[in-house]
Each structure stands twice: as C-alpha cells, then as structure tokens.
Design the sequence.
C-alpha cells in the first residue's frame, strides 16, 4: 500500500486500546508503520538496485523485529531528548493527559505491531512482497488490492476527522473504521474469486489446456516460478497461468491476465456484467476483444535474459513478456516487460521513460555479445 494509507492506519491504531500503552505510542506506531519502506534508499543505486532490494528483508521476519526495535529506540531517545529540552517529563498524550511514559519493552511491542501491519497490508496487493526474505526471496501476494485503494483512504480519513473532540468518540470511530476496512478487504477477496471463475467464459473456445498437471492450490500466489519460459511445440500452445488483478477504480473491475506458452492475453472486465455471467446473451464472443501481448523466447532472448539486469528484473516480474527486434545493423533489441503494468503492446524500439521500472532492455550484437542493459530506458 502507499505510505499515506499506512500512516492513516497507524493513526487509527493509536486510537484503539494500544494508546493506553503510554506516552510515545502514537509516535512509535506512525514511524513503525512506514519503517519497512526505508528500502527506498536503494534507489540511490539506480533502478536495478531498487528492484533488487524493494520489499525484501525489510518486509521479512528479521526486518519486522529489527525495525521494531530500532523504531522503539528512536522514540525512546527522542522522548528523553524532548523532555530534557522542555522539562516536560511525565506529560501525557493529548487523549490521556496523565498517561505515564511507555516502557522501552512496550514501545518495542507496539513498534513490531506497526511494522507487522505494514507487511500484512502490502501482502494483498498485486505488487506482492518478499515476506520470507532473506531466507526465501520469492514474492508472495493475494491479488485483492491495488497499491492505492481510494475506498480504504476514504474510510481511514473519515474515521480520523469525524468526532475528534471526544476520546470515547475517537475510540468508537476507530472500531468502526477497522470493521469497515475488514469489509472492504472481504469484498475485494470475493470479487477476486468471482473474476477468476469467469476465465472460461472470457476466453471461451480459445482457452487451451493447461501446460502440465494442474498446479496445487496454495494459500498465496508466488513467483518467480522454478521453470523458465519455453517455446511450445510448433503449432500448439497451452495455458501456464491465469490471474485476476485489481483495479484502482472499483472492487468489481478486474484485469484478467492469461499467460499462454507463447503470449499473454489481457481483458478488463466488470464482474457485474450480466453478459459475462451468462445472465444475458447478446451473441457477442467476449474473447474477440482480448488484447494479445507477445512473449517469444528465442536464443537471443535467452542470452539477454542471462544478463545481471535481466536476472534482477525477471526475479521481480510476475508476468515477464519477452519481445525482440533487429535493426539495420543486425543489433537485436530485447525488451522484457511486466504485463501487470501495461496498457497494451508497444513497438519494441519505441523509447521508454527512464523512470519506468517495469521494462528492461538489452541490446545484443550479431555475434551474441551484450552491448548494454538497463531498466527504464
């Protein structure tokens, strides 16, 4: 989730009984709820460094405990410094004027709670998180929530700015907000399941058989998969995986991504559409409007995929699509794109923005040498 959502959620938690832990609780929650995103410092090393370290060990078990202790230490030290300079030792929080200082152990516990909730709120986003790093570097996710959920922001913001005068009202509002948040997540989870159930209807007779035995159902989606992409037998194709990704606008709008052995197909749907649910039939074939995104792995593409930049990108990308084109000098441009973040296919040689983290390019000479590699340009 975005940092504004994390901050508003932390402020909401500070209005629950956690506030009785003592002075410093609110500061600890606010800092801890944003602490895992300290990995933003990796951007100093460029886009490759950012993708390599973003949502890594700061979102794993060691990070949860370590950042919790570090946050508690900062709040403890900051509170003592404030008291020395202002002579305000023992002054309680605004909603509990006589509250004593929270002990260091209590600040550690509260801070770990804040960090843990940050990780748990990131997990249901389609972006994913490496919750077991550094012990396991796979990405895990539920595809329920967008990175920024306007409904979650409205719920959290409204709860904080309504009935601010009374401590009892603030605590009551915090409870209502948490219940509404749970309901929002529940609606998204149900919508996600219904969107996946519509896949056979969306692709109809064009939906091929699975590439292998049906994958066992797991609690979380995870990637990268152990097997690298492979070209199918001539004239055949199979279904690797289908996913339903959330939209920013509505819990009923989803993007279906079907990964075939030689391409992706995308379709934006509304699960309330009666035609998709078979309630109404206007004779239209839904699969005719699917957007096809090429994914062709040639020997040159595999050479490009072995470069350090491509390895980092492929480790991050859930649905990497590979395309290539040769110019007049016989230099091949290989472009890897994460299909989660595209509107549709664009020419391989079309320039891309430097800050585009979701596309990697590699140039390969006619004799197979890698000339350059980069993310975002």
Sequence:
């Amino acid at each position: 989730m975005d940092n504004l959502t994390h901050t508003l959620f932390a402020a909401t938690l500070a209005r629950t009984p956690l506030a009785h832990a003592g002075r410093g609780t609110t500061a600890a929650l606010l800092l801890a709820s944003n602490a895992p995103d300290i990995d933003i410092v990796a951007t100093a090393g460029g886009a490759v460094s950012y993708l390599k370290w973003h949502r890594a060990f700061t979102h794993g078990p060691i990070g949860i405990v370590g950042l919790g202790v570090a946050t508690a230490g900062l709040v403890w030290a900051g509170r003592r410094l404030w008291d020395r300079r202002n002579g305000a030792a023992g002054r309680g929080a605004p909603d509990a004027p006589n509250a004593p200082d929270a002990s260091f152990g209590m600040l550690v516990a509260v801070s770990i709670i804040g960090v843990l909730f940050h990780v748990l709120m990131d997990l249901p986003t389609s972006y994913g998180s490496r919750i077991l790093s550094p012990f396991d570097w796979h990405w895990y996710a539920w595809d329920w929530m967008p990175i920024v959920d306007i409904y979650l922001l409205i719920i959290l913001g409204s709860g904080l700015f309504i009935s601010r005068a009374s401590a009892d009202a603030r605590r009551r509002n915090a409870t209502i907000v948490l219940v509404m948040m749970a309901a929002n997540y529940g609606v998204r989870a149900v919508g996600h399941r219904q969107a996946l159930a519509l896949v056979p209807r969306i692709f109809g007779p064009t939906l091929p058989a699975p590439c292998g035995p049906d994958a066992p159902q797991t609690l979380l989606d995870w990637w990268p998969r152990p097997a690298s992409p492979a070209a199918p037998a001539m004239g055949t194709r199979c279904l690797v995986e289908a996913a339903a990704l959330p939209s920013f606008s509505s819990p009923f709008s989803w993007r279906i991504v079907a990964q075939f052995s030689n391409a992706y197909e995308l379709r934006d749907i509304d699960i309330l559409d009666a035609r998709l649910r078979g309630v109404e039939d206007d004779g239209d074939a839904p699969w005719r409007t699917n957007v096809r995104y090429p994914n062709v792995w040639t020997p040159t593409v595999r050479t490009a995929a072995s470069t350090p930049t491509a390895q980092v990108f492929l480790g991050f990308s859930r649905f990497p699509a590979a395309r290539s084109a040769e110019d007049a000098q016989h230099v091949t441009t290989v472009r890897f794109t994460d299909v989660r973040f595209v509107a549709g296919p664009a020419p391989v040689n079309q320039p891309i923005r430097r800050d585009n983290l979701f596309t990697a390019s590699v140039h390969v000479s006619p004799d197979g040498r890698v000339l350059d590699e980069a993310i975002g340009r």
In short: The first strand starts at residue 139 and ends at 141. Residues 167-197 form the longest helix (31 residues). Residues 299-375 form one domain.
